[in-house]
Amino acid sequence: MKTNQHHFLNGKWKNQPSEINAEKCQLVLAFGSSDCIVNPEVNIFLKSTYPNANIVFSSTAGEIINDAVYDNSVVVTAIEFEKTVIKCIETNINQQSNSFETGLYLMSQLAADDLKCIFIISDGTFINGTELVAGFNKNNNRHIPITGGLAGDAARFEKTFTGLNNVPTQGNVIAIGFYGNDMLIGHGSFGGWDEFGQERVITKSDKNVLYEIDGKNALDLYKQYLGDYVSELPGSALLFPLSIKVNGSDKNLVRTILSINEDEKSMTFAGNLPEGSKVRLMKADFDKIIEASSTAATNSFTSIKTHRPGLTILVSCVGRKLILQERIDEEVEAARSILGEKTTITGFYSYGEISPFNVGSQCELHNQTMTITTFTEV
Prior knowledge:
Layout: E1 2-9, E2 12-15, E3 27-32, H1 34-37, H2 40-49, E4 54-59, E5 63-65, E6 68-70, E7 73-80, E8 85-92, H3 99-110, E9 115-122, H4 129-138, E10 146-150, E11 162-164, E12 172-179, E13 183-190, E14 194-206, E15 209-213, E16 216-217, H5 218-226, E17 242-245, E18 252-255, E19 257-261, E20 266-269, E21 278-283, H6 286-299, E22 311-317, H7 318-324, H8 328-339, E23 344-350, E24 352-356, E25 363-366, E26 370-377
Parallel strand pairs: 3-4, 9-10, 22-23
Antiparallel strand pairs: 1-2, 1-7, 3-7, 4-11, 5-6, 5-23, 8-12, 9-12, 10-24, 13-26, 14-15, 14-21, 15-16, 15-20, 17-18, 17-21, 19-20, 22-26, 24-25
Helix pairs in contact: 3-4, 6-8
């Protein structure tokens, strides 16, 4: 596996020296701010540079390249695989009946005996991430690793843009299938947030819209905990996500609030919150959040053991970026310290992260985590 990286910053391209054969390159990943990623000149440059590659675009809430985080730029990673075959499929939510059917369709298009893993780049505003993941899981009987993330739009939560081989637009979901036994996939996902307060039960919800906790209005209850942050809703909700344990599961998921409805007294989250699930509020511990990146990186070695990754994709939550602020580079550096200096690192800040909890388990939608996927050809 060979890689080459480019960085579009302040209207100019910064290109790194590389031995990659541009005409043999099969995959290009372009992660950029909403304004930059829809710039037609970016698409033109990448198509002319890598004429035979599948080019996958995603808007972000921040771009990751090597051990640094940027805003208002585009980070590009081109990959030339030596033995691995890839297949990219795109669909739009308007072409499917719902998010579940979107995942089901994409999985059916990629299914094959030698499918090694799937990486998803999804719209972050029109898609219900929980339902999308459920669609992918429906017929994934072999528990093929499925990872990825939902596109971002800084902290605006207005429009996200994704695309395959064209200037990205809204509502698209792209799935990349990797085929062959020469590819080793590692994955890890960890949050590092602290739970506080008593455990409560969701008593009224509709998919990802929460109405009542313990029989009380959820929004009013939530506001009691926010104190001075109430006036900054919904943005301040990123600082206080919910930990959810779904109907008897021993695994806790994290859910981030996307919006609030003062008239209905409801809150819309990035993933589903089934009735009967148990929830607790969470708050940030800076050092634990940064340390979580090291944990996610360490966990990514579970399936690849002593092999060192050639490519690493980091997908971290916008909420972590807003919390860490000037310390944001530290969580990328923490991951790099575990992954090693030789791996090519790219990634973005997202509206949701996709990864299994453990090797051999189904994928889940996460919020407020650092999620890491590694690729190694052997």
